[in-house]
Amino acid sequence: MTNVFAIVNAKGGVAKTTSTMNIGYALNKLGKKVLLVDLDAQANLTLTVGIRTDESLNISDALTDGCKITDIIHKVNGVDVINSGRTLIEREHTISNSITGAVKLKSLLKKIKDKYDYILIDCPPSLGIYTVSALVACDSVYIPMVAEPYAWDGLSRLLETISIIKEEEINPNIKLGGLFFTNNSKNAQTILGKTIISEAKEQLGEKVLKTTIRTNVSLNESIAVKQNIYDYAPESNGAKDYMKLAKEIINS
Ligand SMILES: Nc1ncnc2c1ncn2[C@@H]1O[C@H](COP(=O)(O)OP(=O)(O)OP(=O)(O)O)[C@@H](O)[C@H]1O
Ligand SMILES: [Mg+2]
């Protein structure tokens, strides 16, 4: 059965895109069929896997019935990727106001789901229509978090949104898959960092995943050269940490 994961945090720069891409490629290394969906108008995932953002079609066309979902699936080193682009911003109002609005992504994915073991959706840093669409379409939510000041900003609203989506039966089976700390080497040593990590464990218990992603320069560099970490630096701590995380996720 296919598992659909939304990678969400309303806070920017917490490694949502880095995690979506590298958990996806780690799952692919483990023999799984993977689709990555870029749902962020910044199109960082699209660019990082090497798809141009001036491609004529992107996810916003499928969401507005301008193309079929199969028209925007790109094959990139063994993983399928649905690209994004700036038109997601221009069409946000139209999509929010259409009858199918937040359920359209779910119905699009339903048409192609069976081909994959895992579908990972990279969300924008907000709780707008696109993130809500991902929460409606997913089975589990994974939250990357950085143990820095303001780390909790927006998180309680996200957790509240997940409970509303569940309780109002918009997506009754939605689960919090887990929260994991990213870019963590420096933060884990500071008093503030330690406090944030222990608060997270107090509030979310076993939903705080055991694997943390260490700060790793190869992860940074791999993005600059538009490669996943397994092609760029397979022996790096970044590659090891994301593999450990992918295994923890599939075994949980
Ligand atoms: N473990 C890590 N070690 C070093 N750098 C990292 C690590 N994880 C992420 N980064 C860097 O942090 C920056 C932000 O990462 P990323 O773009 O994945 O965050 P994001 O949450 O998707 O951001 P946005 O909210 O803008 O979409 C990038 O430059 C990335 O290379
Ligand atoms: Mg991003």
Automatic annotation (TrEMBL):
Gene3D superfamilies registered for this protein in UniProt: P-loop containing nucleotide triphosphate hydrolases (3.40.50.300)
Limits of the AAA domain: 3-175
InterPro entries per the UniProt record, alphabetical: AAA_dom, DNA_Partitioning_ATPase, P-loop_NTPase
Database matches in Pfam families: AAA_31 (PF13614)
Signal peptide: none
Protein name stated in the entry: ParA family protein
Lineage: Bacteria, Pseudomonadati, Bacteroidota, Cytophagia, Cytophagales
